[in-house]
Design goal:
The chain is an alpha+beta fold. It has two helices and 17 strands. Among the domains are: 7-65, Hormone Receptor, Insulin-like Growth Factor Receptor 1, Chain A, domain 2 (Hormone Receptor, Insulin-like Growth Factor Receptor 1, Chain A domain 2, Ribbon), CATH 2.10.220.10; 70-112, Hormone Receptor, Insulin-like Growth Factor Receptor 1, Chain A domain 2; 117-168, Single Sheet (TSP-1 type 1 repeat), CATH 2.20.100. It has helices spanning 179-222, 232-235; strands at 5-6, 13-17, 21-25, 30-36, 39-45, 52-56, 61-65, 70-75, 78-82, 87-89, 92-94, 101-104, 109-112, 117-118, 138-144, 147-149, 162-168. Residues 116-170 form the Spondin-like TSP1 domain. It is found in: Secreted.
């Protein structure tokens, strides 16, 4: 072993030197050179830093730099995130998206253009005027639809979601609010009143009949019995001439 090479290293190094840092790494770790001013220091990391991608070899695992316009990459020719001012498309960083695609400033990617989609129209509403459905001849009816897919920046804008048209209805009077309920209540009270009246009359009739019966019974008790009328034949019987 060279005198400047040490095997009792810190930070995951298998071998190292006082001047160059890590010279080799322990298994599974990646070796990468970090620049400090004019000097490069070798370090061993569990994963490659931003702007680098890892490659594994039988003897050593290394971190290599991505392309200049790429922030993170899987390989040198396949970028996964671009630097500011570039848009990611199929692993490449582009200043302008291809035809048929649009730049998404939120994800910094080239994405497909999305057009607006709307649902089918609903049935026409009842004919109304000033919120009422009666008391007029000409009014308006409306129908609506919903947006099921909002467009992207370059997509086709959404159409109107409501339509209105004139309508004609058979003119009819408006029933006052609560009138129907009031009429039902009045009819119920009237029916109850008539029923109560009939009940009172029937009770009064029964009481009158009972009173008349009691009066007749009392009269029969106090009036003397009438003598029996004599038999006419007995009154006309001949006198006894023997005397």
């Amino acid at each position: 072993v060279h005198p400047n090479v040490s095997q009792g290293c810190q930070g995951g190094c298998a071998t190292c030197s006082d001047y160059n840092g890590c010279l080799s790494c322990k298994p599974r770790l990646f070796f990468v050179l970090e620049r400090i001013g004019m000097k490069q220091i070798g370090v061993c990391l569990s994963s490659c830093p931003s702007g680098y991608y890892g490659t594994r070899y039988p003897d050593i695992n290394k971190c290599a730099k991505c392309k200049a316009d790429c922030d993170t990459c899987f390989t040198r020719n396949f970028c996964t995130k671009c630097k500011s001012g570039f848009y990611l498309y199929s692993g490449k960083c582009l200043e302008k998206c291809p035809e048929g695609l649009e730049a998404n400033n939120h994800t910094m990617e080239c994405t497909s253009i999305v057009h607006c989609e709307a649902s089918e129209w609903s049935p026409w509403s009842p004919c109304t005027k000033k919120g009422k459905t009666c008391g007029f001849k000409r009014g308006n009816e409306v129908r609506v639809r919903e947006i099921v897919q909002h467009p992207s920046a370059r997509g086709t804008p959404c159409p109107a979601t409501s339509e209105s048209r004139k309508c004609i209805v058979q003119r009819k009077r408006c029933q006052k609010e609560g009138k129907g309920k009031k009429n039902r209540e009045e009819r119920r009270k009237k029916a109850n009143k008539e029923e109560s009246k009939e009940t009172r009359q029937e009770s009064k009739g029964r009481a009158g009949r009972r009173q008349n019966r009691e009066q007749r019974e009392n009269t029969n008790k106090t009036q003397p019995k009438k003598r029996k009328a004599p038999n006419k034949e007995e009154d006309l019987a001949p006198l006894d001439t023997a005397h």
